[in-house]
Amino acid sequence: MTIAEYKRLTSGKGSKASGGVLEKDIQDEILEYLGWAGILAWRNNTGAAKYEGKERTYFVRFSRPGASDIFAIKNGRFIAIEVKKPGGKLSPNQVTFLEEVREAGGLAIVAYSLADVEKLLNT
User: Is the N end or the C end of the chain the one with fewer CB atoms within 10 Å?
Assistant: First the structure.
């Protein structure tokens, strides 16, 4: 599915992140597009939390440092999408993660817009 087809099907709603104001808006647009295109995709939340147990304090990490914002699978191939607003920069951990995905045979990109994802999917 092309971006034009997606926007036609969603009555133009797909253009909300074109200004790139918030990374969350771009992520939402990409996830919605991937869903419409029939590609398995999900938001990968990362971070950590500390909580007090009865006998000790627990520290729990969610995902791994630098893991991409969106994971997808198309035709059996793993895809990692790190979303940045225009001008956004990758952390060293994010650079490492994207390199590791590529070395393992997956596709990995930094997406500043939905168009970046469409370009990747059409290669």
Answer: C
